[in-house]
Each structure stands twice: as C-alpha cells, then as structure tokens.
Give the backbone structure.
Amino acid sequence: MLDGLKNNLRDAIKKIVKSSGIDEELIKELSKNVQRALLQSDVNVRLVLEITKQIEIRSLNETPPPGLSRKDHIVKILYDELAKLLGKESDFDFKSGKQNKLIMLGIQGSGKTTVTAKLAKFLTKQGYSVGVIGADTYRPGALVQLRTMCEKSNVEVYGEPNNKNSPDIVKNGLKYFESLPLDVILIDTAGRHKEEKDLLSEMEQINKVAEPDLAILVIDGTIGQQCFNQAEAFHKTIPVGGIIITKLDSSAKGGGAIAASAATGAQIMYIGTGERIDDLEKFSPTRFVGRLLGMGDIQAVLDLAKRLENEGDDVRLKRISSGKMNMDDFFYQLEEVTKVGSLKGFLDNMPGLSGMVKDDQLDQMEGRVSKWRFIIQSMTKEEKADPDLMNSSRIKRISRGSGWPEHEVKELLKNYKNSKSMMKASKGRQMQGTLRRMGFG
C-alpha cells in the first residue's frame, strides 16, 4: 500500500536519524523531502505546503519534552502533522430505536456498489440488522450484482428492475423496510461523472426523499488528486459525513485519496483493501501514518506501555526500574508482551523497528519466548524470587521439568541477567527496554 510514499518518507526520516546534529538547514531539507514525497504521491499542493510549513515551524521552535531527543521529537512532529491531515478516528453513531439511513455516493467505477455490500456485511458482523436499497438505474447489472453480494451475508436488497426513477425506488424501498426491525438502511445510488448535472440533480432528489442520517462518499484510491475535486463537487450537493476509500491495496497515488477528507471536512471511515467481501477495514489515521513512516502502530505501543505501567504494582515497577527485577517480574513482562499478539506483530508496531527484523529471526524469537515460558514455570517460588540461587543441580531439575536442554536454561539465565542490568540503565521506562527485558537487546 502506497509504497512510493512510504519509501520516500522513510528516506527523509533516515537523514534526520543519521545526522550528527540538528540545525535549520537540516530541518529545511527535511521539509523539502517531505514535500517531494507527498507531491509525488499526488497529495494536493496546498495541503502539502500547509503541512510542511507546520513541520518546519514546530521543528525549529519547539523544545523536546524530557526524555525525548531532538531527532525523535522532529520525527514525532512529522507523525503528528500527517495524522492531523487525516483527522480523528471515526465510527458510525447510530441512534437506537430508529432506522438509520445511509446514502452511498460516488463516481462510476469507484466501487460503490461493491463497498455497499461490504459495508452491509461489516455492519451485520457488528450485530446490526441491515437492509439495502438498490437505486442505481443507470448501470446494467448493478441490482443483480448488489443482490448476489448481499446474499452472502443474508442481507435483503430492495430493487425495482423495470423502474428508472431512482427517487421513487428509494421512496418505495423505505416504505417496504418500514415495518421490518432494521437498524440500518444503505441506499446505493448511481455513479457517473461528477460534472453531470443530471446526476447531481438526481442525488438532490434522492436526498430529499430519503432524508439520510449520513452521506458516505466512496472514492477510488487510484485516481490521485482528482479525489480532492470529486469530494468537493459531491459535498456541495449533499453534505458528506464520511468517506470510504477503495483500491488502496494497489494504489501508487493513494496520497490524493487520503487527502480527500480535507475537501469535505469529513473523516475517512473505512478503506477497501481487496476484492473479497470481507476486505473492508476501519481506518485509523494514527496507525496508517505510523505504518507509512516505519514507526509501526504507535497507538499499540503506547497502549502496551500504559498497560505495563497500570497493571504492574508499585513494588514490581520499583524493582524493574531499579534493576532488581526477579524471574517472576521477567515472566510477567513476557506475558504482557504476548497479550499484544504475536512477537512479529509487536515488533512491527515498534517505532523504528517496523520491518527491520527478518522473518526467520522473528521465528527464532517467537520460539525462544515459548521456551522461556516453560522453563520459568518449572522453577520453584524461591528460584523465581532469587535466580542467583541457580546451580548445576537446580538447572538439571528445571531442564527435566520443562522438557528443554540444560543449555536453554543457561541461555535464559544469561539473557535475564543482561536484561536486568539494561533495565537498570534505561530506568525501566523506554520501550527499547521491553525488548531488552526479553533478551533481544
């Protein structure tokens, strides 16, 4: 996804990270590199200039918070400004006790009918009861396609194959679904060129008939800067409340699509990532930008750090941060990390480590964590509290109990001691320390 933008932004970050010092010239160079990266990805010129100006001003004038280097702070500023462009994470705000009506808008070929079916399935999986009205009377086969796709999720589609009056179909469909216990009704409309007055007039009529709770604009992620103009044209006719971007799985021009929200003030809510009916995922600006910059899923890392701190008792935290961590604490941290998911997923989410560790190394790490868990569980309470008690006879007993060779037990003890001293040096607070606690430092 967006490989060109991703690589260019990461190259810009590398120049900052590898520099011997930060000065005004380097910050201006970063600004130009980011400009180039965004423009090549077809982000609107005005938006690019606004973003890079803010990056420059903040990088030159802001003082990094305690514990954060100036280099890291500049990278975080870049992350902040790109995430701000995409808005906040957004979700549907359905009102209970009524049928919530959503109208789907978009240019012909944007994938709107497919997205309507995908969204119907997505919402049913969330526990909502959904009905769909097929009001695209221009494209041959649109109603058949909609019904075929919605059958897979047992969603009923109302349509009138012989009626060419879309507003009437919507009116009749709403009346048909009126007595049914539905939470959401999706209305699929015709998609043609943004400047066709007939289409815009028809949309206005449908809007009056339906009185939708939300208008969702479906945008093709492959068309670049045209997205901005499209979004603006639709928004002037019907206020757009949410955006879904399709075809982001293969787009080199996705930067234009992700900037389309700026034309409407609406949030990107979902993105289509493939052809299957399940290929629709909730859009998170922070996660998206984190992946672009090679910073992984920043929020996942912050959540982990918060949980490690909140769930650990004060005594445990004091032990860890002072370098007096025992084997119980070490085991506790291993368990906490595995709550995030696989180690590969965890490392992919780590700032600066995303994509840096090879798959075969990850497999070795995953196996090591699994071994350590069994070995630690085979220790006595006293041994966990004070691993310095370990001698050859205890190591033999633990080896037999865990089912792993003695050299594996010794390897764990070696890594535990390394982690303990490194945790002391890092005050137990840095996320890099999490890896060191696990013996990968």
User: Anything to note?
Assistant: The radius of gyration is 27 Å.
